[in-house]
Amino acid sequence: MGVQVGFDEEWGRLRADAVERRAGSSPSKPSGPADVGAVVGSVEADPVAEAREAVLERLADFRSRVVLVPLDARGGLWTAELGGLDWICVFSDEEALGRFAEARGEADREWAYRRVVGARLLDEVVPALDFPCGVAWNAAGPDGMVLPPMRGIVPDTAALDGEAAS
């Protein structure tokens, strides 16, 4: 399926970026009591918390976007199976969809698609399916991201670790 960016790779990159930001802004040793307050407020920046915040920002960005969802031969949302789970492939724009088609060797065919708001996809479409399904955003691009069917991403009833899984 072309270039695949998994959640672990995305999380690792965001965490490394947060650690690098922290290292680049580490304060010098305080010279006296007046400097202590400034250091206390910034010394213990948690790189994991910063990475988590970055992921939540990307999730919020996705939820607010109108994305392109290719359609299959029957007019349904196009999905791909990877790692034992189905993924709805979505793209930020026609250029991203074109990269995906090129990576699949199918750039010469017409790709019909539907425009869907990201939040609707996660909150309504995924829960309406009768099988667990995640969302793969810009699968063949440098900004690709996967949104697995987990609590905090989809409603608990559709999450593999939510109410339906219990």
State mean pLDDT (0 to 100 scale). 81
Side-by-side strand order of the widest sheet: 2-3-5-6
Segments where pLDDT lies below 50 for 5+ residues? 1-6, 26-41
What's the end-to-end separation, in Å?
A: 32 Å
Oligomeric state as shown:
single chain
Give the overall shape, derived from the CA principal axes: globular
H-E order: HHHEEEHEHEE
How much of the sequence lies in strands comes to 15-25%
Biggest sheet, in brief?
4 strands, mixed
**Count of beta strands:** 6
Q: Which structural category do the helix and sheet elements fall into?
A: alpha+beta
Radius of gyration, in Å, reads 20 Å
Core attributes:
166 residues, alpha+beta, four-stranded mixed sheet, 6 strands, 40% helix, disordered N terminus
Brief sketch in words of this structure:
The protein has 166 residues and is an alpha+beta fold.
Provide an overview of this structure:
With 166 residues, the protein is of the alpha+beta class. 40% of the residues lie in helices and 17% in strands. The chain contains five helices and six strands; from the N terminus they run H-H-H-E-E-E-H-E-H-E-E. The strands form two sheets. A four-stranded mixed sheet has the order 2-3-5-6, with no helix packed on it. Strand 5 and strand 6 form a beta hairpin. Helix 1 (7-24) packs across helix 3. The radius of gyration is 20 Å and the shape is globular. The relative contact order is 0.16.
How is this fold's topology laid out?
Layout: H1 7-24, H2 33-42, H3 47-64, E1 66-70, E2 79-82, E3 85-90, H4 94-103, E4 113-117, H5 118-128, E5 133-137, E6 145-147
Parallel strand pairs: 3-5
Antiparallel strand pairs: 1-4, 2-3, 5-6
